[in-house]
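Render Fatty acid desaturase domain-containing protein in 3D.
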Amino acid sequence: MRADDAPPIPAALNALLLVAAMGAGALCLWAASHAEGLWVRLVAAGVFSYVNNTVFSLLHEATHGVLHPSRRINDGLGRLAATFFPTSFTLQRAFHLTHHRHNRTAREQFDYLHPGDHRFLKYAQWYVILTGVYWLFVPLGALVFALVPGLLRRLRGPGTRYGEQTGADAYLGRLEDAPGAAIRVEVLGMVAVQAGLAYALDLTLVGWALCYAAFAVNWSSLQYADHAWSPLDVREGAWDLKVAAPVRWVFLNYHYHRAHHRHPQVPWLYLGRYVDERVPRPSFLRVWLAMWRGPRPFPEQTK
């Protein structure tokens, strides 16, 4: 589908959702830091894990240029959304578009064990994703790139089994041409917003960490469930997962991931129109539970 043929971008709705989700997230951070009852703090962290996924989904829209029809406003809102992840918008866009180019290729088959794969590394990467530790690498990676850009480049591993198996070669290779000055400004903005929230809301480290730990698990659990054991095809290699409607609404139809990969220029509001009901649609819960058993042998090995 050409961008000109895509449905219109719901710009006003997107802006309203971004403000509402960030406001709700700030309220959750405050409650997790100041509520007297532990159960209230846990509920606040749980709610934060969902509303911050709304913010992330809008950041995802911005990386594809479909958050707002104006490129300047689209990128500005994307940078704002990125501060709540927190990360650099430019880095996120570079990495996410790299994912679209390499989806389900040999560089993104984390769900399969290939001959010659380093088993410990494969399993470590897999469970880092499942447990939410994967999230931690995003803000830390942005900080490292801003402060010591050469370090991430040295971790790329071009031409090595490590670089191919982990996807580091493809993803960190994008940093060779990344606009370092813009990224450093965005990282400074992300630190300023997080520090501003901590000061204005008098956040505690425990309350902040509780919210972001819950978000990390919730966000990370979906980041490969929508691809695990899907067809090995760049465009078709994703699932339109079945999930409770309220959850799908909060995630802004992110679970319609096959539809998104086939039509990346379609705004989230209309993705349901592009779901092919003739194609298997597993439930998110079924795929997520199966993932805990670990990567599977590559299909050719079982023939």
